Amino acid sequence: MKTRLIIPWFIPHAGCPHTCRFCNQHQVSGEGEGIPSDSQLTEGIRQWLTHSPRRPAEVAFYGGSFTLLPRAEQSRLIETARRFNTDGVTGIRISTRPDAVSDEICQFLRQAGVTTVELGVQSLSDHVLRASGRGHMAQDSLQALARLASYGFSVGAQLLPGLPGDSLDQARASLKGVVGAGATFVRIYPALVLSGTALAEDYLRGNYQPLTLDQAVDWCAALHAEADTLAVPVIRTGLQDEPSISGSSTVLAGPWHPSFGALVQAARWRYLLESILEGFRDTDVTIIGAQRLQSVLIGHAGSTRKQLEAAGLRVVFTVDTQNELSDREICIRTPSETFFADLGRYPYPGGSISI
Predict the structure, then answer these.
(1) What is the DSSP string of 160-212?
(2) Are 105 and 128 in contact (CB under 8 A)?
(3) What is the pLDDT of residues 273-299, one digit of tens each?
């Protein structure tokens, strides 16, 4: 089955009446101010479809608060995207604020053809939301998620662990809360200090300390394990590597890494291997995994392999040439036995392992 093609359109701050302390969407997206014209949107969608023919596609309007745009503007953008229904566009995705989701808005979106709505929840701690200048409370998020789910939308929640006043326990509680309220997928973006934000001023004054890269990897690995338990997919971890955010002038501080998601997965696999291989010191061990899993099994720059070797483990990583293993399963061979291990059976504890 072919994966769905996402055709992204970023409309930074469009429709949003509020600027949170952490937010600078112009830098995050790399896009300038403004909403695409019909011709820009039409040409852009056509190019995406030309490069990826015969794949089901979804047009996604990211950034800003789509439901706070003028209604005529919302209708224009959705209708322009829907003109490509016969060319493979099977869905339309928008993102918005939790306090911009009413019954009337849900009815309009359903009738217009929107299929997926993502909410910028960030946290379900009122303390964290106030400290971040979010402009809404946790109850607004819970009500919006439940309302969207009741109208049949596919509902996503975006979480930002590490905001002022946050903790790992609270981040876990936020994840559990959004899933319980109706979210069917989540994105996890550890908070960064971006230039031009109020949070940057707090940081430069010494009033805010972001998570280190090691802390953020640890937290997000624990959240991924929690999401597995809740049977909800994490579709993105960490911001995508873009020239607009990878430069030192944009990210002042915080856990930025171009392969952040891979670091998180590597941490989870390292925990699994350490847990299993504790009783196999000074024994030859072969770890067999899918080709696409090799980099996270070995770890960034071979970090996992080096750490296992330092612990007295003689480990060889090899590829499953029979293509029998999923990307969540490995085969372990020792001179005396062969067995399998599934990532989901080794919940990452968080806070107890040095990354």
Answers:
(1) -TT-TT--HHHHHHHHHHHHHHT-SEEEE----EETTSHHHHHHHTTS--PPP
(2) no
(3) 999 998 888 889 999 999 999 999 999
